[in-house]
Amino acid sequence: MRYNRLGQTGLFVSELCLGTMTFGGGSEGLWSNIGDLQVDEAAELLKASVDAGINFIDTANVYGQGRSEKITGEAIRKLGLKRDDYVLATKFLGETGPGPNGRGASRYHIMQAVEDSLERLGLDHIDLYQIHGFDPATPMEETLRAMDELVSAGLVRYIGVSNWAAWQIAKALGMSERLGLSRFASLQAYYTVAGRDLEREVVPMLTSETVGLMVWSPLAGGFLSGKYDREDEKKTEGRRAAFDFPPVDKDRGHAVIDAMRPIAAAKGVSVAQIALAWLLHQPVVSSVIIGAKRKDQLDDNIASTQVTLSEDELKTLAAVSALPDEYPGWMLDRQGEYRRGLLAQARRN
Questions:
Q1: Are 276 and 304 in contact (CB under 8 A)?
Q2: CA 276 to CA 88: how far, in whole Å?
Q3: What is the largest CA-CA distance in the chain?
């Protein structure tokens, strides 16, 4: 297991992160389609993760309507983990109470949300506190000042964001610098070999501003697990049959799967491991969040850290998964070609 620096911080996190969305989903509704693991099952997955070197755990206050945080905390205590042996990340934004102020990124909601999360987790601080999405109703400065206060109070060590556009993150980073506030250490976002939209605007921004990247749903909700092919679109089993998310360009996705199968067969590994290994080969990625309902699924995902892709294999996957050209990308490439050539020549010299 390798450990990567998270953004500009001095914090190092494992290249894989245990996601807890499958914890405590309940018997009905959205979260039941994802998983309903209870404390003993969660503790088994957590132990396997820790034994493999994973020091990073991610949850959210809306997962299982709060049950995921509670079970995560109970599993940590059941295993007797020391507080400095793991990095705990959680998120806020979604509905946690009735009325118009029971959600969002207002100071009002943030202050209540962090207290509730700490109580459910049974902890005195959160290592990485993330905004789960963008709130168009709250001024960005209000959100950033509230999160900075949590850092100053010792309730939160670092702050992050999830599912924001590049311009929103860049604006927030500039505002934090101008006002002397804590800056975002990381972005949690969707990114897969079959869904590379992040590379248009977000990845260049993350690289430029040294913001870490945590990847959610690295197997596209199971689409890249190797269980599906073109004949299985009407399959009635598996997570995507009940919860077809995140959206996938099926034609491109199946082409990617077709390209991964021979690579996986040659290495004697699963298609899922190739999909995860591709992400682990991307320099912008700090940590890939993996979730599972069973230990064998988790073990298979963890084994992806041992898979090395050759330059030719990476080129094959890059070609089959390439995004269609869009403006201004193709114009930037055209106009910057000469100057990029000068830079490359200077590096060789």
A1: yes
A2: 22
A3: 63
Pairing of strands 3-5, 12-14: antiparallel
Which residues, 6+ apart, have CB-to-CB distance to 112 below 8 Å? 96, 97
- Cβ within 8 Å of residue 137, ≥6 positions away: 104, 106
Q: DSSP assignment of 162-194, as one string?
A: ES--HHHHHHHHHHHHHHT-PPEEEEEEE-BTT
Domains, the chain, ordered by start: 3-348 (3.20.20.100)
Would you state the structure tokens that stand for residue 167, as one six-digit string?
A: 């311009």
Contact partners, residue 13, CB within 8 Å, separation at least 6: 3, 4, 6, 55, 56, 87, 212, 286, 287
Q: Which residue has the tokens 């999360």?
A: 117
Name the one residue in this structure whose structure tokens are 């959600």. Answer: 103
pLDDT tens for residues 57-115?
Answer: 999 999 999 999 999 999 999 999 999 999 999 999 999 999 999 999 999 999 999 99
Residue found by looking up tokens 């599972």 in the block? 292
3 has catalytic annotation: no
What sign results for the dihedral spanned by CA atoms 188, 193, 197, 199? positive
Of 3, 63, 86, 190, which is the active-site residue? 63
What is d(CA 230, CA 257) in angstroms, rounded to the nearest whole number? 10
Distance of CA 94 to the CA centre of its chain: 17
Asked whether 263 and 12 are in contact (CB, 8 A), the reply is no
Rounded distance between C-alpha atoms, residue 185 and residue 161, angstroms: 8
* Residues 37, 319 contacting (CB under 8 angstroms): no
**H or E stretch including 58?**
strand 56-58
Q: Respond yes or no on whether the N-terminal peptide bond of residue 98 is cis (omega within 30° of 0).
A: no
pTM of the model: 0.95
Contacts of residue 200, Cβ cutoff 8 Å, sequence gap at least 6: 323, 326, 329
* Strand (E) or helix (H) holding 57: strand 56-58
Phi, psi of 108 (to 5 degrees): -55, -50
pLDDT single digits (tens) 204-248: 999 999 999 999 999 999 999 998 877 766 665 666 666 678 999
